[in-house]
Design goal:
The chain has one domain (5-138): Histidine kinase-like ATPase, C-terminal domain (Heat Shock Protein 90). Strand 2 and strand 3 form a beta hairpin. It starts with a strand and ends in a 6-residue tail after the last strand. The model has no long low-confidence stretch (mean pLDDT 90). The chain has four helices and five strands, in the order E-H-H-E-E-H-H-E-E. It is globular, with a radius of gyration of 15 Å. It has a five-stranded antiparallel β-sheet with strand order 1-2-3-5-4, covered by helices on one side. The longest helix is centred in the first third of the chain and has 22 residues, at 36-57. By secondary structure, the protein is of the alpha+beta class. The protein has helices at 16-29, 36-57, 90-93, 110-117; strands at 5-12, 64-71, 75-82, 120-126, 130-138.
């Protein structure tokens, strides 16, 4: 299936850019006329994925995060990629309450939050090479 529109952003892994990524994704997705709740779901999931890249991928070092949004007729696919340290055990990392940073008082709920707000979450990662989180969501509203 071919996207009807696509955009790509690259930004530094600074915590101040998490809000930028969230707003940019929501603005782009708004072309599909989602409900307010659906738009909030996208913002929340993007926020979690970008925060994970900053805190866990780059461990608060500065690197590049790439966000690609692809719009389809009634759905969106959002890829958030870092070239950070990667995830050793994806299955473990995706378990609720698991955190690799307990000293930072992280909740360990990032992937759980993403999964609860999106229809599907896919994680690809290689230790030492980085991680890509792909978020999928279909919207209930028809484009006008």
């Amino acid at each position: 299936m071919q996207p009807v529109n696509e955009m790509k952003l690259e930004f530094l892994s600074k915590s101040s850019n998490e809000a930028f990524a969230r707003v940019a994704a929501a603005a782009f997705v708004s072309q599909l006329d989602p409900t307010i709740e659906e738009l909030a779901d996208v913002r929340t999931a993007v926020s979690e994925a970008v925060t994970n890249a900053i805190i866990h991928g780059y461990e608060n070092e500065i690197g590049i995060i790439t966000m690609v949004c692809r719009l389809y007729d009634r759905s969106v696919e959002i890829e958030i990629t870092d070239k950070g340290k990667g995830i050793e055990d994806i299955e473990l990392a995706m378990q609720p309450l698991y955190t690799s940073k307990p000293e930072m008082e992280r909740s360990g709920m990032g992937f759980t939050v993403m999964e609860s707000f999106m229809d599907r979450v896919k994680v690809r990662s290689k230790p030492g090479e980085g991680t890509t989180v792909t978020l999928f969501k279909t919207f209930s509203s028809e484009k006008k």
